[in-house]
Amino acid sequence: MLFPKKPTSGFLLPTLTLLLLLLSFSTNINASDRTSPEDDFDDLEQLLALDEQEDQQQQGQEQEFSSRFSEAAVVSKAQRIVLELNNDNSKRIFDENEFVLVLGYAPWCVRSAELMPHFAEAANSLKLLGSTLLMAKLDAERYPKVASLFDIKGFPTLLLFLNGTSQAYTGGFSAEEIVIWVRKKTGVPVVRISTVTEAEEFLKKHQMFVIGLFQKFEGSYYEAFIKAATSDNEIQFIEANSIEVAKALYPDIKATNLFLGLVKSEPERYTTYEGTYETESILQFLDYNKFPLVIKLSELNSIRVYSSPIKLQVYVFAKADVFKTLLEPLQDVARKFITKMMFIYIDIMDENLAKPFLTLFGLEESKNTLVTAFDNKGSSKFLLQSNPTPSNIEEFCSGLLHGSISTYFKSQPIPENKNASVLAVVGKTFDDLVLNSPKNVLLEVYTPWCINCETTSKQVEKLAKHFKGSDNLVFAKIDASANEHPKLQVCFVKNHVSILHLNTEYSFDCPPKDSLIVK
Q1: How far apart are CA 193 and CA 336, in angstroms?
Q2: How many other C-beta atoms are found inside a 10 Å radius of the C-beta of residue 315?
Q3: What value does the CA radius of gyration of the chain take, rounded to a whole number of Å?
Q4: Is 450 a catalytic residue?
Q5: What is the mean pLDDT of each run of 10 residues along the chain (519 residues)?
Q6: Which of 180, 283, 467, 510 is spaced 20 to 30 A from 300 at the CA atom?
């Protein structure tokens, strides 16, 4: 038996009797501590309440364990559907099956472990749908020869084999997204729904889809729809020729004979397509509208986010509990900039995701809510430097859209340079100490990870002391990994530090190979 039985009333009665006897015995021990019958009754009620509370907690724990056990059983069953490839069976599997989707993984790979249950769930769903596709997995470390044959070099890798010829997987990584992509690539780009009952059943299983309403499943408009469905790798396309069926899927529909719309599971659930019925136009509509108002970045969806045609992207970094209160007002802000900019949330406590971004701003140690932005078209970055309230975020976004927000350049705190032979320059002092200096400046540009920087810095110190008292020459250095400036040009020569000479014309001379290198 998995769980102990709940206490029954038969057990509860002797328990109550024992409690009453103990209370009665307690009142006879010391007359001075005697309590009234009402107090005894109150004590008994408290004990009963505690007993009931413990019973409810036990029930909740049993239900939680039962739910987890059930989910684990489903995953385990689904994983058994996925065939394990090895040195002996690989050739036979590909010879006997027209369609094979292979997951190349490594046991130590975290992303492989995250993807595996979704892959297994997709295998189970495809089997229920009657798909002839075989889903298989390959431990690339255990069977390196087979992995090399499939050209599996990273993990996880998904490859679809059509009659032995492979093509890279380009879909999403949830079970539903894998199913949609596979069905499209194996001959089912569109699902036809003919009755309201079918539509209602479909809605129970799918949260995002494109609905196309056509009087007849023919003609140039319909052909553009089919081509778009085939080209798109992420979204399920549905076709119908009944207005009743279309309304069951898309209640806001106005047209009666020709319609196309996108359905999503979020506040902006319905989006009507108003463009021309051309394949590229339909695909562009989906690219600009398929994401939620605010998308949470993860390892599995990062590639889709980065490759979005919306190049102006606003990133909100916050702790999970803080973001719960910020989400709704942030959605209101995002609604005003639909198709113009993308809003992305990253848990600031997730170092793997947050730290690479925050390092670009020199804020990798921050734990407070931050709002940044990237213009991927011009490779520029921006930082909201006021309190991240909804109104300030909206003002920040409006400025981004109109080009009135200055590009952010990171800088270390301003250092003390008193009596220094080599001036320490940071982003904030670059103008004053370098660009606006009346003297010539010999600037050492280094990074902490530079192999030869320490030796070179010592040599620069010696040179600075040698030229101490010069009226026309200043020695300076800047850490290029922690400081930025729009006019700082960094030159790397054979893994050595860069020595840049700033002349009186306010321009930098990048050294030619093997020159200006202090060794």
Answers
A1: 34
A2: 21
A3: 33
A4: yes
A5: 37 36 38 45 55 60 48 50 92 92 94 92 91 94 93 92 91 90 91 96 92 96 96 94 95 89 89 95 95 91 89 96 95 95 96 93 93 90 95 97 94 90 93 90 86 83 89 91 82 52 45 37
A6: 283
Single-letter residue type at 401: L
Q: How far apart are CA 345 and CA 320, in angstroms?
A: 10
Q: Is 109 among the catalytic positions?
A: yes
Residue 291 is given by DSSP the state S
CB contact at 8 A, 115 and 169: no
Collect all residues with Cβ–Cβ distance below 8 Å to 143 and sequence separation of at least 6: 85, 86, 87
**Stretch (H or E) spanning 262:** strand 258-263
Per residue in 172-196, is it b (16+ CB within 10 Å) or e — as a string?
A: bbbbbbbbbbbbbbbebbbbebeee
334, 268 in Cβ contact below 8 A?
Answer: no
Contact 478, 489 (CB under 8 A): no
| Largest distance between two CA atoms of the chain | 103
What is the strand order of the sheet 83-84 is part of? Answer: 83-84, 134-139, 99-105, 157-162, 165-168
Distance of alpha carbon 519 from alpha carbon 511, whole angstroms: 14
Rounded to whole angstroms, how far apart are CA atoms 508 and 485?
Answer: 13
The dihedral built from the CA positions of residue 16, 18, 24 and 30, taken in this order, carries a sign that is: negative
Active-site hit among 397, 453, 491, 510: 453
Whether 510 sits among the annotated catalytic residues: the reply is no
Q: What's the confidence (pLDDT) of residue 510?
A: 47
Q: Which of 109, 397, 491, 510 is catalytic?
A: 109
